[in-house]
Write a structure and sequence with these properties.
Layout (H helix, E strand, L loop, with lengths): L2 H21 L6 H33 L11 H16 L4 H4 L1 H24 L6 H25 L2 H9 L13 H19 L2 H4 L3 H6 L4 H23 L5 H13 L4 H26 L6 H22 L1
Helix pairs in contact: 1-2, 1-13, 2-8, 2-11, 2-12, 2-13, 3-5, 3-6, 3-7, 5-6, 5-11, 8-11, 12-13
Length: 315
């Protein structure tokens, strides 16, 4: 089967799952249920696309298939921002209550952090990309520790507000920022479009890319900014989903058997939509909302991550 056929198959499967999610157990009140399910599906598509696209770019830049953008601490920074706001101003502050302000504040602060991190990396000529990962890992641990420290000091009722933001849930989609997220996602896609053609060359590594005439530092710096915005959008919309990107991109690699990003990006996005819509169907119909989708995805992703580590060790 050709790669185009495989991508078409994934697209059709995505549509079937979306149709099943929208139409199964619709009941009599169609006018009430259908719009809410449609909003949830739009949030799933935006979140899944942002996570899959950012992970494909990040793994290409780092030339490592067991890494995701969460390793540079963006998820931990999001939780730290929410915890600091509640710790300093309380859960009834406008920074928490107004979801648009909260979303913009989170995105801007995460972009500022990513910019400073990348400036540190590219300040010296020929700095290794793994230096960025090491610094990001340290900051991620620091942010996580600071969040845990403040969560222990705040009022239990205030902690409940922070806890709600710790776990991704499509049952509580931040619909107030959905339109802003879609607009931001489209703008980022348009901006990143001119750099997608370089991804095949970047996957060969820095030295080969430079020898082939690619302005490596310039392109990588802009792609890392794109990654930070996409992670900010997906995290602010539904919360952190750590292993989703790792899971869908690696499965797309195995299924498509290609390194051409024109197929890989679309295949990963379809895989992400299939995983999220299928997972949400299981959460709603099998577990009857007794668990969240992030628990299922992180469990499957964690097992798959161990499998990848063992596989790499044997090779």
């Amino acid at each position: 089967m050709s790669k185009r056929m495989k991508n078409s198959l994934l697209f059709v499967l995505s549509l079937l799952l979306i149709s099943a999610f929208l139409l199964i157990d619709l009941g009599g009140n169609v006018g009430y249920i259908l719009p809410r399910r449609a909003i949830k599906i739009v949030a799933i598509i935006v979140t899944g696309s942002a996570i899959a696209f950012s992970t494909v770019i990040f793994q290409t830049i780092t030339n490592n298939r067991i890494l995701t953008p969460s390793i540079i601490g963006l998820d931990s920074l999001y939780m730290l921002i929410q915890t600091v706001i509640v710790f300093l101003f309380g859960s009834m502050n406008i920074l928490i209550l107004n979801k648009n302000i909260n979303f913009l504040l989170s995105v801007v602060l995460m972009m500022v952090f990513a910019s400073l991190l990348f400036k540190l990396l590219f300040r010296k000529e020929g700095q290794n990309i793994y230096f960025l990962l090491l610094i990001g890992l340290i900051f991620g641990t620091l942010f996580g520790s600071l969040s845990s420290f403040m969560e222990m000091l705040i009022d239990p009722n205030e902690f409940q507000v922070v806890q709600d933001r710790m776990f991704a849930s499509f049952n509580n989609v931040n619909t107030d920022v959905l339109l802003v997220s879609i607009a931001a996602f489209v703008i980022v896609l348009v901006y990143a479009w001119k750099y997608i053609k370089y991804l095949d060359v970047l996957s060969l590594g820095r030295d080969h890319a430079v020898n082939l005439g690619v302005n490596y530092d310039h392109i990588v710096k802009r792609l890392l900014i794109v990654i930070s915005i996409l992670v900010s959008i997906s995290t602010a919309l539904v919360g952190p989903i750590t292993f989703l990107g790792l899971l869908v991109v690696n499965v797309a690699h195995e299924f498509l058997k290609t390194y051409r990003h024109s197929y890989l990006i679309s295949g990963s996005i379809f895989m992400s939509v299939i995983a999220l819509v299928g997972g949400q169907l299981i959460v709603e119909r099998v577990f009857t909302f007794s668990t969240s989708i992030s628990v299922i995805i992180n469990f499957i992703g964690g097992v798959y991550f161990i499998y990848l580590l063992l596989k790499e060790r044997k090779s």
